[in-house]
C-alpha cells in the first residue's frame, strides 16, 4: 500500500492510495484504522487497467501492471495535503573537495558563455 | 567601582537603558561613562534579541495550540513551510507527535529531516540467525515496523517517479523485503516444529498423497 499524490484535484479530506488488487474496502478500512490509527469516513475503490498497447524494440506488446486505487475520506473534518517530499536544498560543499572544484568550474563556464555586460544587453548582431 | 556601575545598569528598566545608550551616542569622552555606555548597549541588544525570540516562541506556540485543537494538517504544512523565517525554533516541532501511536498518515513519509536528501543511510537487513533469537511478541512487533517502513519506501518510490527525481537510497526496499521474507521463514519454522511435536502431522492442510496425470506425487 502506498500513498499517492492525486492527479486530479481531490477534496481536502480525501487521501489516495494504491493497494494490491486483492484488497477490499473493508480490508483498507481495517488496515488503516488498526495499523496507522487513522479515523476514517467512507472508502471507495476502483481498478485501474494497465495498458497492453505499448510495444518494445522487438515489436512485442508490453503489459503495464493493473493496480487498485482507494479514495479514503478522513473523519472528524480532518484535512490532508500531500507534502513536497523533494524540497531543493542548497548544499555547501566543503572547501578543497572534488564537488567544490566541479561547481567552481561549471560556474566559470557559465560566466564565459554570458555576453559582455558592458554592452548593456545589446546582442552581437549589431556590428558596433 | 566599575562592577557596581555594571550592576546598576543591569537593574535599569528598558526606557532608562535606552536613555543611557542615547547618552553614549552623544559621544562622552570620559572613560567611566564610556564603559557604562558600552555595557548598556550590550545589554540592550541582548534584551531586544530575547524579546524577539520570546515573541516568535509565543507565536509558534499559539499556532501549534491552534493546530492541536483544530487538528488541521494544512495549517501545519503552512507553518512548516513558513518556518524558513525563524528556523531555530520551529525545527524543534518537526513531527507533531513524538510517539508512533499518535502519528497517523505522517508514517507514510520519512523523517522530515531526510526530505530532499540525495542519500539516506540505513543499516544491514535482519538475518535469519538474528531473528531466531527473538521471541514471538518481538517478531510480531518487528513485522509491523517493517511493514510500515516498506509502505513509506513505496510512497517515496511512487512520488519520485511522479516528480522525475531519483529515489534516495533504493536499496532500503530490498533490505526490508529480505528481512520480511526471513522473518516469515523463521515463523514458519516455529509453527512447523510445534505442529510436528504436538500432532506429528507432516502437512498443514488435511489431504492425501495422489499422483497427477504427469506421474508426480502431490498432496
From TrEMBL, chain B:
- UniProt cross-references to Gene3D superfamilies, sorted A to Z: 6.10.330.20
Keyword annotations of the record: Mitochondrion, Ribonucleoprotein, Ribosomal protein
Question: For this UniProt entry, what is the primary localization, expressed as one broad class?
Answer: mitochondrion
Pfam family membership, one: MRP-L47
Location comes to: Mitochondrion
Per the record, GO CC terms? mitochondrial large ribosomal subunit
Q: What is the superkingdom listed in this entry's lineage?
A: Eukaryota
Molecular function GO labels: structural constituent of ribosome
Gene Ontology biological process terms from the UniProt entry: mitochondrial translation
Q: Which InterPro entries match?
A: MRP-L47_sf, Ribosomal_uL29_mit
Which PANTHER family does the record cross-reference, listed alphabetically? LARGE RIBOSOMAL SUBUNIT PROTEIN UL29M, RIBOSOMAL PROTEIN L47, MITOCHONDRIAL-RELATED
- UniProt record similarity statement: Belongs to the universal ribosomal protein uL29 family.
Q: What is this protein called?
A: Large ribosomal subunit protein uL29m
UniProt source species = Polypterus senegalus (Senegal bichir)
Species classification: Eukaryota, Metazoa, Chordata, Craniata, Vertebrata
Amino acid at each position: 500500500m502506498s500513498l499517492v499524490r492525486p492527479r486530479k484535484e481531490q477534496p481536502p479530506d480525501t487521501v489516495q492510495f494504491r493497494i494490491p488488487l486483492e484488497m477490499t474496502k473493508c480490508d483498507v478500512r481495517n488496515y488503516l484504522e488498526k495499523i496507522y490509527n487513522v479515523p476514517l469516513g467512507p472508502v471507495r475503490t476502483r481498478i485501474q487497467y494497465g495498458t497492453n498497447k505499448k510495444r518494445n524494440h522487438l515489436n512485442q506488446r508490453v503489459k503495464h501492471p493493473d493496480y487498485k486505487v482507494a479514495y479514503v475520506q478522513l473523519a472528524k473534518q480532518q484535512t490532508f495535503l500531500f507534502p513536497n517530499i523533494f524540497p531543493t536544498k542548497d548544499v555547501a560543499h566543503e572547501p578543497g573537495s572534488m564537488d567544490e572544484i566541479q561547481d567552481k568550474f561549471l560556474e566559470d563556464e557559465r560566466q564565459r558563455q554570458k555576453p559582455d555586460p558592458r554592452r548593456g544587453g545589446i546582442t552581437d548582431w549589431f556590428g558596433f | 567601582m566599575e562592577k557596581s556601575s555594571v550592576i546598576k545598569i543591569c537593574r535599569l528598566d528598558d526606557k532608562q537603558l535606552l536613555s543611557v545608550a542615547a547618552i553614549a551616542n552623544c559621544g562622552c569622552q570620559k572613560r567611566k561613562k564610556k564603559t557604562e555606555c558600552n555595557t548598556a548597549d550590550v545589554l540592550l541588544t541582548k534584551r531586544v534579541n530575547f524579546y524577539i525570540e520570546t515573541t516568535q516562541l509565543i507565536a509558534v506556540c499559539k499556532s501549534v495550540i491552534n493546530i492541536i485543537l483544530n487538528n488541521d494538517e494544512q495549517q501545519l504544512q503552512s507553518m512548516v513551510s513558513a518556518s524558513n523565517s525563524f528556523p531555530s525554533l520551529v525545527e524543534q516541532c518537526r513531527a507533531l507527535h513524538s510517539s508512533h501511536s499518535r502519528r497517523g498518515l505522517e508514517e507514510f513519509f520519512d523523517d522530515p529531516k531526510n526530505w530532499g536528501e540525495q542519500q539516506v543511510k540505513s543499516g544491514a537487513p535482519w538475518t535469519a540467525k538474528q531473528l531466531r533469537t527473538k521471541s514471538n511478541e518481538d517478531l510480531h512487533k518487528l513485522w509491523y515496523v517493517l511493514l510500515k517502513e516498506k509502505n513509506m519506501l513505496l510512497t517515496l518510490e511512487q512520488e519520485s517517479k511522479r516528480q522525475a527525481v531519483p529515489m534516495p537510497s533504493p536499496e532500503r526496499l530490498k533490505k526490508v523485503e529480505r528481512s520480511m521474507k526471513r522473518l516469515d521463514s523463521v515463523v514458519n519454522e516455529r509453527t512447523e516444529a510445534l505442529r510436528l511435536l504436538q500432532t506429528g502431522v507432516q502437512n498443514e492442510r488435511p489431504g492425501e498423497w495422489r499422483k497427477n496425470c504427469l506421474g508426480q506425487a502431490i498432496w
